[in-house]
Amino acid sequence: xxxxxxxxxxxxxxxxxxxxxxxxxxxxxxxxxxxxxxxxxxxxxxxxxxxxxxxxxxxxxxxxxxxxxxxxxxxxxxxxxxxxxxxxxxxxxxxxxxxxxxxxxxxxxxxxxxxxxxxxxxxxxxxxxxxxxxxxxxxxxxxxxxxxxxxxxxxxxxxxxxxxxxxxxxxxxxxxxxxxxxxxxxxxxxxxxxxxxxxxxxxxxxxxxxxxxxxxxxxxxxxxxxxxxxxxxxxxxxxxxxxxxxxxxxxxxxxxxxxxxxxxxxxxxxxxxxxxxxxxxxxxxxxxxxxxxxxxx
Amino acid sequence: xxxxxxxxxxxxxxxxxxxxxxxxxxxxxxxxxxxxxxxxxxxxxxxxxxxxxxxxxxxxxxxxxxxxxxxxxxxxxxxxxxxxxxxxxxxxxxxxxxxxxxxxxxxxxxxxxxxxxx
Amino acid sequence: xxxxxxxxxxxxxxxxxxxxxxxxxxxxxxxxxxxxxxxxxxxxxxxxxxxxxxxxxxxxxxxxxxxxxxxxxxxxxxxxxxxxxxxxxxxxxxxxxxxxxxxxxxxxxxxxxxxxxxxxxxxxxxxxxxxxxxxxxxxxxxxxxxxxxxxxxxxxxxxxxxxxxxxxxxxxxxxxxxxxxxxxxxxxxxxxxxxxxxxxxxxxxxxxxxxxxxxxxxxxxxxxxxxxxxxxxxxxxxxxxxxxxxxxxxxxxxxxxxxxxxxxxxxxxxxxxxxxxxxxxxxxxxxxxxxxxx
Lengths: 297, 118, 294
Ligand code: SF4
Ligand code: SF4
Prior knowledge:
CATH class of the largest domain in chain A: Alpha Beta
Structural class of chain B: alpha/beta
Bound molecules: iron/sulfur cluster
Largest sheet of chain A: 9 strands, mixed
Helix content of chain B: 25-40%
Radius of gyration of chain A: 22 Å
Strand content of chain B: 15-25%
Structural class of chain A: alpha/beta
Oligomer: heterotrimer
Number of domains of chain B: 1
Radius of gyration of chain B: 12 Å
Number of domains of chain A: 2
Strand order of the largest sheet of chain B: 3-2-1-4-5
CATH topology of chain B: Nucleotidyltransferase, domain 5
Number of helices of chain B: 4
Distance between the termini of chain A: 10 Å
Helix content of chain A: 25-40%
Shape of chain B: globular
């Protein structure tokens, strides 16, 4: 089961919810010998779940995508490739073909349509995937696995790395295992990639006009993708009741209300998990987990 | 010799030089041999998500230019392409007319750019 | 007069960047044109209440579409598409707009010319009069659209044009989040970068990443430490970091629910919390920026 945790804007507590929920679930399933939960940080441009969840590194691998390289011996400088590329990744100089691999979207068009087969596709590094076991700051917790991917600086699109990270997770963990995806903020392509195949999407928001405005965009996005979803309100108690009003009017389920507490902000600032120190937050995670189990059934 | 001027509008010798290269509105190519000034629109390219500089550099190459003049900057990708194509770049023109930029250039008032801005 | 562009950024969201920017916009009044380049979460308009005097649509990139009347069901397009964007349902080939990258490969090879590439609508741009006696240029990105930095560039261009026409000295930009293309587009060529940070592990981490990026552009930087009393030890470390990196400390603001209360009331925090330390500090901060940018 894939659960994507997303939000319209950054800073609403997406990472807080993902890390605490994953750690809480791993604790509650500790007596179940087959139980397992996987936390995946898909905010590959700035992954930071790792600041809260630590563990032993099990695997560390580079991720690649294909981009063309120019074979000057075969090329007749016909210029086809330059016309073909829709992303301006190819320039034709008087005696050279110049390829800007960071602009290449790996569509293979130039390579397969070059009349001289002068543009073979070759793997280029785009980022790193790290797989941690026995993660969680809890002693003897072997139920939580943590995976994060980080995009190399200068790479323009996060989408191929997100795609490959999800594939990695699917190849390594069976379908019934709960997987929590910490998505990038916003409603653009990387978010879509993260939530488009999720079984359930949790949208985290704040009870303020900013939160509501961005939540509406996020709701529109998940609806367009036809995903099942529900809302968690973070910093509940501050602000106004606009978000609740909106959810009520649109028949959207609120599955958790994480209270606004200075203590939470202060623990967060130290890179600490919250649920094991603040009972009021744990209570909410219990409710959220129950909601997940209802969907899972 | 052919000279490319990045411009903000299409008004012949009175057009104003663009501060940017890749996302300039258009280009004038002046051929010293034939004394012709020809306009090439770059508006489609202004809408490119990425790589506008590369496409703009391609225009200069296709016109067999030896020199490119802009008002203020040259992005890293355009620089790389133009540099490899041995086209000289001058970016200190400011927002003056093409005519003024041309005469300043002839008077050697500009220094050739040897590295990109970024 | 040369316009001075001041951009406010933060790396990750949630540090109070928009609250700070909107306060600066209020303090500046008609001395500045405001540009909201945080197009993913464009929230400034909720505080500035613009009148949407002028709007235009915005296109970027392309998407393919199949004309089923011309399609002979040969299936070639589906076999070459690397993005799995083409599927066949009831003997009709269809393109999933969300998966289509716009590479144009299918359109190029379709033997019956049934595939067309169309420009995709990625957002809208607005130019408004705000309730603060200044002009706001803002934009919204279409859902699932790519924020390539192009819309950001366009917003800045418009703001600059208006500042020139109206002889306005400053342009205050609410920058994009992250460290990718959009943020690069929001800081290139500006005169001063204001980084809003908070003393949290992730805030500090983002501050170091983002300041490293700004350094490459050789632009003067100043920093606002928000919620500075949340973790005094980290605040201390941040200050050390600022000194060793030659970043001016513009001001510190306390952790206070008044930020949220102001947003809820549709006001900037300087209007809402009058005579508070927050108001005084932000006013001083604006003065320091004005000096710094000279
Ligand atoms: S299409 Fe092939 S042969 Fe033609 S210019 Fe490009 S690389 Fe050379
Ligand atoms: S693979 Fe596609 S995107 Fe990449 S260079 Fe070739 S045509 Fe351009």
